[in-house]
Design goal:
Hypothetical protein af1432; 5 strands; 443 residues; two-stranded antiparallel sheet; Isoleucyl-tRNA Synthetase, Domain 1
């Protein structure tokens, strides 16, 4: 609109035989080279028409349309040539060419990267206990995920990487899940993009992204401010999104550990693995926090993040359950206040264990019993991701906690009794903080 002073819309056509080429190729050629608008039917299929805009009035539009059609015909003929030539290239030959393409001078070639992706993918498959057939698909998808980078079509249109790989892999006789994974391993490509729909695509996508992130962190390339030349923030967010969408039973630490071990074994690490792991945790904490902040209050986000974010599914579920609870603010406010009273005094406790024989007040025993009654169920609910059940069990401690503080002088003059009471509160506080740091909630 802002490229011309007097915009006039016109349309043209192109030979329908070009529709045998994947429509993504045709659309990209029209948009990138000519700034044409493609025309799709109601099913989203490309039609042999295009729309463009000229600068000027409506005189001689038929002549201008024919001129644009001639230019587009040449562009699409080039695309058709590239497409046909690419199909003559065997996948194994394409893979060998990756050995001469440098990914990063300190991280090796694209071929080196593919080998790391394969090893990370295989270990992720084992950790996730996928079936033998699925593991084979993951391995093959990892092996060939970058082969289309050496094709003429991707050289001409880099944004078609993965798109062409899927098409060429399918035509080369690869399994459907493998072909689809070649495209999907780039997903999500941007904020709001879909995550991979297949198991193989999801695993290889995580492997590719964590390989890049760990590789960059290992040589000191860590995003600062607005500088992020390797799009590491987007790739980290993609990993978190995939783990959440597919409810993958794996923690971020396990993913980091696999990638770090592969890098250390294949190329060695310039920095200590412990330092890299710490930087990774800090980096991913911000990605998880950003994800939670999309639909949760800032104080709820801070509360659940403080209790740990290693298990992405768990931290999101805990945040959602807390959001529902704070909606009933008056009732839940007193529950949070009782939890915070426990935490405030628990900070004064040492490392002593609770000894029920030292209880001198009935309320001590009642709180101790109530806590022990829920612990196994609480542990099970928390580990299974049932955040609502976990919070409900904790909330059941409100009455015995209130009774305890109403009747018991925690800071007794008797050192043994005082230490034992603080140990009781400390034990309860440990379980509370596995769910959230309730002191961060603004009630």
């Amino acid at each position: 609109m802002f490229l011309v002073e007097t915009p006039t819309v016109l349309y043209g056509t192109f030979d329908a035989s070009f529709l045998n080429i994947p429509q993504d190729v045709l659309i990209t050629s029209m948009r990138e080279h000519q700034r044409y608008f493609p025309v799709l039917d109601k099913q989203g299929q490309l039609l042999p028409y295009f729309v463009t805009v000229r600068s000027g009035d409506s005189r001689s539009l038929d002549v201008i349309a024919r001129g644009n059609e001639k230019v587009l015909r040449a562009r699409l003929s080039d695309a058709k040539f590239f497409y046909e030539e690419d199909q003559k290239l065997q996948i194994k030959d394409a893979l060998s060419k990756l050995e001469s393409i440098v990914f990063h001078e300190e991280l090796g070639t694209i071929g080196d990267k593919v080998r790391r992706i394969r090893r990370i993918s295989d270990q992720l498959s084992a950790k996730l206990a996928v079936s033998a057939d699925a593991a084979d698909s993951v391995s093959r998808a990892a092996d060939i995920c970058k082969f289309d980078l050496v094709t003429q079509m991707v050289y001409e249109f880099p944004e078609l990487q993965g798109v062409m790989g899927e098409d060429y892999a399918r035509k080369a006789g690869e399994k459907e899940e493998v072909a689809k994974a070649v495209f999907e391993h780039y997903q999500p490509r941007f904020s709001g993009d879909a995550v991979p729909s297949t198991q193989a695509g999801s695993i290889v996508s995580i492997a590719d992204k964590i390989d890049t992130i760990v590789g960059c962190f290992s040589i000191g390339i860590i995003p600062t401010g607005s500088q992020d030349p390797y799009a590491l923030r987007r790739q980290a967010a993609g990993i978190v999104q995939i783990m959440l969408e597919h409810k993958l039973p794996i923690t971020l630490s396990e993913v980091f550990g696999i990638a770090l071990a592969v890098h250390e074994d294949i190329r060695g690490l310039k920095r200590l693995a412990s330092e890299i792991r710490k930087d990774l945790l800090d980096f991913f904490a911000l990605r998880v926090k950003k994800l939670l902040s999309e639909d949760q209050r800032y104080d709820v986000v801070d509360a659940v993040i403080s209790a740990g974010f290693d298990h992405v599914i768990s931290v999101v579920a805990r945040g959602q359950a807390l959001m529902q609870a704070v909606g009933h603010s008056e009732d839940f406010k007193t529950t949070v206040e009782s939890f915070n009273r426990v935490s405030n005094l628990a900070s004064k406790a040492g490392k002593a264990a609770v000894n029920s024989a030292l209880f001198t007040e009935s309320q001590e025993g009642e709180l101790y019993q109530a806590w022990n009654d829920i612990r196994d169920d609480y542990q099970t609910a928390l580990e299974s991701g049932d955040a609502e059940r976990s919070l409900s069990l904790l909330s059941g401690l409100k009455a015995p906690i209130t009774g305890f503080f109403d009747s018991v002088m925690v800071m007794s003059e008797d050192e043994a009794v005082r230490t034992n009471r603080l140990a009781l509160l400390s034990g309860i506080d440990v379980d509370l903080k596995r769910y959230a740091d309730f002191s961060k909630l603004v009630m």
